[in-house]
Amino acid sequence: MTQEEKSTSPQDIQTVVICGPSGVGKGTIINRLKEELAGKIGFCVSHTTRQPRSGEVDGREYWFTNQEEMRNRVERGEFLEVNEVHGELYGTSRAALLDVMSRGLLPVLDVDVKGARDLRSSGIKGLYVFLAPPSLDQLENRLRLRKTETEASIERRVSAASSEIEASKEAGLFDEVVVNDVLDNAFEVVKSKITPFLQDARPKKVRFPGCNLLTLLRDGGDGSRC
Ligand SMILES: Nc1ncnc2c1ncn2[C@@H]1O[C@H](COP(=O)(O)OP(=O)(O)OP(=O)(O)O)[C@@H](O)[C@H]1O
């Protein structure tokens, strides 16, 4: 059996998990990582029921879906983590992680605090980074300048941020808390923390209970049989 043929259990998976309140800059930093570490990291595109923002592309930022379809897939156990935020569902599918790993790339996930907890409890290892805003005022300002949210949505996101920041202090949840004040500085810190994890990336066949990469590929790669 070659190295590639050996199956890996979820507990052997190394990932980079990026977490933080809405508007803190997760997407911005991940996009830069995708550029600067191209061919080394792979973004695990998660699913959401929220509407695409201007410029977002299906399959790049998110897989955009609807409540019924997403709930059905959650029922079928397709997701590693799933959460309802501000009335919309978000989740990372097993298939998204498998896809990145099969290409020999270090998986990068963008999740909320509950997602980070769920990944930790399913034994998925790696670097868990919490991005914190310099202040709630600046967070609000970023959301306002982004021009993607209604006033009510901005208020909801900023008020949720306090409890997310509090949760980031939970023992054993995050390995690093990085304040995204000056973007270039925060980006360099995150990149330097990721670098030691890049060595181990090589194509892997991952076996989740009742699901493996070959099954996924044979069935069209959508994870519907897992
Ligand atoms: N360090 C920074 N200084 C100023 N503005 C920033 C900084 N980092 C990101 N931004 C801006 O803040 C806004 C929010 O960033 P981004 O969309 O990346 O946040 P997010 O955490 O991915 O949010 P969400 O979870 O809602 O998708 C964007 O307009 C982005 O350009």
TrEMBL record:
<dbReference type="GO" id="GO:0004385">
    <property type="term" value="F:GMP kinase activity"/>
</dbReference>
<dbReference type="InterPro" id="IPR027417">
    <property type="entry name" value="P-loop_NTPase"/>
</dbReference>
<dbReference type="GO" id="GO:0009507">
    <property type="term" value="C:chloroplast"/>
</dbReference>
<dbReference type="GO" id="GO:0005524">
    <property type="term" value="F:ATP binding"/>
</dbReference>
<keyword id="KW-0067">ATP-binding</keyword>
<protein>
    <recommendedName>
        <fullName>guanylate kinase</fullName>
        <ecNumber>2.7.4.8</ecNumber>
    </recommendedName>
</protein>
<keyword id="KW-0547">Nucleotide-binding</keyword>
<dbReference type="InterPro" id="IPR017665">
    <property type="entry name" value="Guanylate_kinase"/>
</dbReference>
<feature type="domain" description="Guanylate kinase-like">
    <location>
        <begin position="13"/>
        <end position="195"/>
    </location>
</feature>
<comment type="similarity">
    <text>Belongs to the guanylate kinase family.</text>
</comment>
<dbReference type="GO" id="GO:0005829">
    <property type="term" value="C:cytosol"/>
</dbReference>
<dbReference type="InterPro" id="IPR020590">
    <property type="entry name" value="Guanylate_kinase_CS"/>
</dbReference>
<keyword id="KW-0418">Kinase</keyword>
<dbReference type="Pfam" id="PF00625">
    <property type="entry name" value="Guanylate_kin"/>
</dbReference>
<dbReference type="InterPro" id="IPR008145">
    <property type="entry name" value="GK/Ca_channel_bsu"/>
</dbReference>
<dbReference type="InterPro" id="IPR008144">
    <property type="entry name" value="Guanylate_kin-like_dom"/>
</dbReference>
<keyword id="KW-0808">Transferase</keyword>
